[in-house]
Specification:
single chain; alpha/beta; Rossmann fold; 2 domains; 6-stranded mixed β-sheet; 4-stranded antiparallel β-sheet; 9 helices
């Protein structure tokens, strides 16, 4: 479990990115931080592994103050996946994945063998192991990024808009892969996005943020959809535009889900 207690982050120019945040992130679930630019979601994420230091307040992981830990050791114990994969261009795929375990003292041969297994986990062909990142598609690079994030077998995986730079079809595939991986591995995932549909798809807990890292509403997707806490939340999730007001019509003998304007959005399965 990750807990923020009255955490504030103020940058040297006076900007308050996060203002007195209180938040509990449950273990072995996916918590999605969602909001527009300036809502502090990435700052909150990066405070967990001390890539950004808090100004005040307390942050604990499983009851332990993260500021009592060596920051380098802390970062190596937490998986991190960023938007553009962040792969080392001069290293082959297998060596990119093996990097953190080797830094943690794992022998190169063992780290590379474990990396091959992780390629299986994220749905990549092992034949790609000896290629360089520039020889992969954007979606393949992001899968390698996820594999690298999992390489040290961390309890916590931080994901900062990891699917934002790929096309919609690949993004949908990567989202489903993450759902599968989480079902199999049960990590504590903290995921940042500006896309509310992605948040609802992936999140066990969704934390909708306003400017300054203030929580507008936190809960399950069903909680937020069924009872938006404010006009801001209703607008953000599209409830005020009928975007979420769906109904069922029978077309050609099948139950078709349509929106408020009658546009088909899906088919009900029996």
């Amino acid at each position: 479990m990750i807990e923020f207690r009255t955490v504030t982050k103020q940058f040297p120019d006076g900007t308050v990115a996060v203002d007195a945040l209180d938040l509990v992130i449950p273990a072995r679930q996916t918590t999605v931080l969602v909001g527009s630019s300036g809502s502090g979601k990435t700052t909150i994420l990066r405070m967990i592994n001390r890539m950004v230091d808090k100004t005040s307040g307390d942050i604990e992981i499983d009851g332990e103050d993260i500021y009592s830990l060596n920051p380098v050791k802390l970062r190596r114990s937490i998986g991190y996946v960023m938007q553009n994969s962040g792969l080392l261009p001069h290293r082959k795929v297998v060596d990119n994945v093996a990097t953190v375990p080797m830094l943690n003292g794992v022998k190169k041969a063992d780290a590379r063998e474990a990396a091959l297994t992780l390629l299986d986990t994220v749905g990549l062909d092992r034949q790609l192991a000896e290629r360089y990142p520039s020889q992969l598609s954007g979606g393949q690079q992001q899968r390698v990024g996820v594999a690298r994030g999992l390489a040290a077998d961390p309890n916590i995986l931080l994901m900062d808009e990891p699917f934002g730079a790929v096309d919609p079809i690949v993004r949908a595939e990567l989202q489903q892969e993450l759902v599968r991986i989480q079902r199999e591995l049960g990590k504590t995932i903290v995921f940042v996005t500006h896309d509310i549909d992605e948040a609802f798809l992936l999140g066990d807990q969704v934390v909708l943020l306003e400017k300054g890292g203030r929580i507008a509403q936190a809960g399950t997707p069903a909680d937020i959809l069924s009872k938006p806490a404010s006009d801001f939340v209703a607008t953000f999730i599209g409830a005020d535009r009928g975007r979420r007001a769906l109904r069922v019509e029978v077309v050609n003998g099948r139950s078709v889900v349509v929106d408020e304007d009658g546009r088909p959005t899906g088919v009900l399965q029996s």
